[in-house]
Amino acid sequence: MSKTGRAVFLDYRSLDLGDLDMAPLRECFDELMLHDQSTPTQIIERLQGARVAISNKAVIDAAVLAACPELELILVTATGTNNIDLAAARAHGVTVCNCQGYGTPSVAQHTLTLLLALATSLPDYQRDIRAGRWQQSPIFCLLDHPIVELEDKTLGLLGHGELGGAVARLAEAFGMRVLYGQLPGRLPRADRLPLDELLPQIDALTLHCPLTEQTRNLIGARELGLLKPGAFVINTARGGLIDEQALADALRAGKLGGAATDVLTQEPPKDGNPLLAADIPRLIITPHSAWGAREARQRIVSQLAENATSFFAGHTKRQVN
């Protein structure tokens, strides 16, 4: 394979925990520099002389592109490219490629894990055991928290791409009926229900759609009020799809059976978040880890290598700009 100069991975720690085979990517370049993290100032310094930048969340904006004239290719280790100024990249003749579909099994599995944990009140029972309540029980079991069977329940799904389809298949394996919602800005389809029709019919709602201006706060106080009492809400897509204050209020008021989210509007939530309050019942938060199975991260390495080799061979894969 003809190698292609120098590449710099700006935030390598966000991908590899020391458990990945990086050989496919290393073989693409004469030199591959790996940096755990990069500050805005370091980004410009480290990309000097590089033909390829690799980034997960490190921001490559117009100023970076202007200061790095030798840059030809940006490889994003995720599907979302909001950390890249795509217009500026295009103006500077820099190609941007992302990774796609790498985390479908991992995220779908995580989504069902959250749904099952809510349905079985798993966190509540674990908390009771740690507090010694089972040990003090006068009978053999504890049944202090609701347990819901998923069989014959209805799952509402917003976003029916590859990931949504995988979640639907897993839900159907548990005997659930799946209904699909119509997303704003999309052409109407006979098999997609308007949100106001979907929400009152379902026992659980799961989101798998992108965050756009049309989907921001898609699920707010009004929409949460349309759900059945005791319904579950799950978000493994993007923070901002659900109005976080409205969700916190609905849980405190006992209007929902529970909620689970793998995403928040700011990540990490250094400035606080309404959902991090200690008094919110029946809420599970995971730290944007749904995508993080080793197998999924290894697929990213493979796709990065494919994107690099195809670009320098003249037939770019997964180009987004």
Task: Present the secondary structure layout.
Blueprint: E1 6-9, H1 23-26, E2 31-34, H2 40-46, E3 52-55, H3 62-67, E4 73-76, H4 86-91, E5 95-97, H5 104-119, H6 122-130, E6 154-158, H7 162-173, E7 177-180, H8 195-198, E8 204-207, H9 221-226, E9 232-235, H10 244-252, E10 258-261, E11 283-285, H11 294-313
Parallel strand pairs: 1-2, 1-3, 3-4, 4-5, 6-7, 6-8, 8-9, 9-10, 10-11
Helix pairs in contact: 5-7
Summarize the structure.
With 321 residues, this protein is an alpha/beta fold.
Protein model, in words:
The chain is of the alpha/beta class. It has helices at 23-26, 40-46, 62-67, 86-91, 104-119, 122-130, 162-173, 195-198, 221-226, 244-252, 294-313; strands at residues 6-9, 31-34, 52-55, 73-76, 95-97, 154-158, 177-180, 204-207, 232-235, 258-261, 283-285. The protein folds into two domains: 6-102 and 294-313, NAD(P)-binding Rossmann-like Domain (Rossmann fold); 103-285, 3-Layer(aba) Sandwich (Rossmann fold), CATH 3.40.50. It has eleven helices and eleven strands. The strands form two sheets. A six-stranded parallel beta sheet has the order 7-6-8-9-10-11, with helices on one face. A five-stranded parallel beta sheet has the order 2-1-3-4-5. The two termini are 26 Å apart. Its EC number is 1.1.1.29.
Strand order of the largest sheet: 7-6-8-9-10-11
- What is the alpha-carbon Rg in Å? 22 Å
Percent of residues in helical segments?
25-40%
Q: What's the tally of helices?
A: 11
| CATH second-level architecture of the largest domain | 3-Layer(aba) Sandwich
CATH superfamily of the largest domain: NAD(P)-binding Rossmann-like Domain
SS content category: alpha/beta
Largest sheet: 6 strands, parallel
